[in-house]
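Entry 14. Ran structure prediction on the chain below.
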Amino acid sequence: MQASLHRILDLLTLVSYNIDIISTVSIYQVLLWMKMRRLVQNGRAAAWRFLFLILIPMKEFDELNKARRNV
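Output, C-alpha cells:
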C-alpha cells in the first residue's frame, strides 16, 4: 500500500515539474526514472551501475529512433 502511494506521488511530482514531459516520455521511461530514484536512495553505487547499464543505451536508442523518423 505504501509503495503504491509512493509511486503515485512520484508520478504527480513528475507531472508537476513539467506537464509536457508526459507527451515525450514513455511509461517505460517513467518507470525507469522511478527505479533510478529508488536506487539513489538505497546507494549511489547501485544507481550509477543502473545508469550506465540501462539508461545510457536507452538514450542512444531514442536518438536513433528520432534520426530514423527524420529521414
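Residues 26 and 42 are 25 Å apart (CA to CA). Will compare against last week's run tomorrow.
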